[in-house]
Amino acid sequence: MHALIYLPGFNSGPQSEKSQQLQMAFPGLQVAHYDSWHPQQAYLQLDTLIQAADDPLLIGSSLGGFWAYQFASRLGLRCVLLNPCMHPERSLRYAVGKVTHYYSGETGVMTDADLDQYPTYRVAPHPRFDPMQHCTVLHEQGDETIPCQESVDNFSGRARLRLIAGGHHRFARLDIAITEIRASCASR
């Protein structure tokens, strides 16, 4: 089986409930631990992890969805995105200033300049990257943080997009995500 790498969202990590549930469903799943406050650091950390893996399937949630899509597109990989935050330069403005990691308690500062870097990480896709074949997007309509319209605007007709009734930003229907991840693994 090819590698599976999960990229959690802003201020999240391996300790999150979603990370742990995905690891239970997919033994051997790597959960990326990266600096979600500083895009340049995040990019370098994720690039090292992803480049070292054997043709990985990337699973990304929220901000992790942004990164999963950018790396899948650049490297011609497959990805499954859960409530993806495709415009962190806008969606994360609320968090500018002092930030505290939800699980580690680590503190730091995120600036407007940090957020302004995100558009520079949008890349032209690799020639073998076909979003209709390589990208599955699941977005719960009850997401209170990233409106599902963002996924409709970014992916309708350009990826396999599935809107799921109800839910919330933390992604309530992980059972659906697990089924879609298994299907993506099987189609490789």
Automatic annotation (TrEMBL):
Pfam families tied to this protein: UPF0227
Name the record gives this protein: Esterase
Species in which this protein is naturally found: Pseudomethylobacillus aquaticus
